[in-house]
Amino acid sequence: MKTIRIGAGLGFYGDAWHPVAASIERGEVRYIGSDHLSELTLAILQKDRMKDPAAGYTRDLVPMMTALWPHAASRGVRFLLNAGGLNPEGAREALQAEFARRGWRARIATVTGDSVLERMDELRAAGEPLSHMDSGADIAAVRSRLLFASAYLGAAPLVEALARGADIVLTGRVADAALFMAPLIHEFGWGWDDYPQLAQALTVGHLLECSGQGSGGNFNAYARGGWQAVPDLAHIGYPIAQVAEDGTAVITKAPGTGGRIDFDTVRQQLLYEVHNPMRYVSPDVVLDLSTLRLTDLGGDRVQVTGAGGHPRPRRLKIVAGYADGWLGQAVVGYTWPGALEKARATEAIVRRRLAEQNLAYEEIHSEYLGYDSLLGPLADDAHVEELNEVYLRMAVRTPDKRLADAFPRQFPWLALSGPPTASGFSGIEPARALLGIWPTLAARELIEPQVRVSVTEVGL
Amino acid sequence: MKRCVRLVELAHARSGDKGDRADIGLFAYDAAGYALLRQAVTVQRLAEHFRGIATGPVELYPLDNLLALKIVLNGALQGGAARSLRSDNLGKCLGAALLRMEIELPDDYPTKGMDAQP
Known about the structure:
The structure holds 2 protein chains of 2 kinds. Chain A has helices spanning 18-26, 39-51, 61-73, 88-102, 120-125, 156-163, 178-188, 195-208, 263-270, 339-356, 401-406, 414-417, 444-447; strands at residues 3-8, 31-34, 78-81, 106-112, 146-151, 168-171, 240-244, 249-252, 280-281, 286-288, 293-296, 302-305, 308-310, 315-335, 363-369, 389-398, 432-443, 452-458. By secondary structure, chain A is an alpha+beta fold. Chain B is α+β, with helices and mostly antiparallel strands. Chain B has one domain (3-104): Alpha-Beta Plaits (2-Layer Sandwich), CATH 3.30.70. Chain B is built from 3 helices and 6 strands; from the N terminus they run E-E-E-H-H-E-E-H-E. Chain B has helices at 31-40, 43-49, 94-99; strands spanning 3-6, 11-18, 21-28, 58-63, 68-73, 102-105. In chain B, the strands form 2 sheets. Chain B has a 4-stranded antiparallel sheet. The relative contact order of chain B is 0.30. At the A-B interface, helix 2, helix 9, strand 14, strand 15 and strand 16 of A face strand 2, strand 3, strand 4, strand 5 and helix 3 of B.
């Protein structure tokens, strides 16, 4: 039976690509799917684009492809990347310029039409309320503060791009797994009602879209050897899926790489951020994981079979982001003896001074690095007197940027006039913009007709 | 006297986010451990454990085929990672926080290789 091997690219904007090079050179992959976008990433790209209309794509695209393309081109490896962000055409132009400069040849496709920020009123006029998917709140509350709004497209336009011969497919917001589903649908000719195969493909995409987290990175099994038993994280191999025409898949990685593929590392990624595992919704199929079987074949190979598939949803998910005030923060450390007590005293002084100056912040958050900043109310308060050091971190929320910028100025005087041993002050950090996320839905008929695939030939 | 263990002895966990939801997978090391998790890790127990973090309801989905529980904590991320004031704005540490939960072991539970606490 025909099989296709797909490798994981990046798992987020800022991820490393040396493991992708290993998959290309030693993993016998035919395709790389690379996920550069999170909910947060689009907000970063929107800020870039406001400063420069040519920007708005993830800037790791050009250096990554410059490093990988020479290895990929000679082997016929094709790429699908959502690095286009808010500006797939801009991404294409940047990549095209670099390829032309180096005299490289490639067919580069772009997929556009996911960005609906300019169409929000039109969608409402067409009968979509665009209310908050979870809370049901009216979008009027945030309408004027929207920074971006992008629909999660499915695999269809990516399949079209591959059919038109693209070597590199640049998209904006698509369902992460679509980057991996598209090559399988293209190669095997599955129909949009081949639910079991689409469900297997979605599962494969989900297992690959977080790069090293699918092959032993960020993995814990504390009572059974733990993360320390995962070999050579410095040279981790990102997961590779070998998928057969019937949808059966084996998850593996390139020989000679670090990390681990086994029942435990794969199932930990399988359930990552899926919410209801009996109904994991994507634009192309709804996945039921309750019938799925993982079979550990040994030798960094795990077989995946039996994913359940149900018809795709009628409406597509849109994620919009809106400006939601400012964060001001400061961090200052104290040493033993009584580190936590000193830090607590500083917090109390700062809060009292804010009140006396009538500085009203919407929210004041305090946490103690080295004690409870990561576990919050679940931190263990035994031995607190003996902690070597504790850092106080205070953060405020306010709609007023100046108030957020001013917050760290509450701290420096306490170095000489507060509790003893204040050290490691973070300085007067500028305020950081906060972003609210607005998930909503719209009929696919209102989105898909606007989707365009275009193919550009470079150096051919 | 009943013996208690932390979940870290029975299972591993990974957590992530989606909007204002924290999403935790809890994976038993073996079938006996999974049977125990199914009994002891209830919606009510989870709500108590994450009081002060989750402001909304807790959802629990057992997956017998994976010896795993999927746990969703609604309203657990101060409105979402991008507007949160916390260091762990993405809820990446909530899996570890879950592994701190203590449960009672049945008298006949096999504890070979397990560091049970009295």
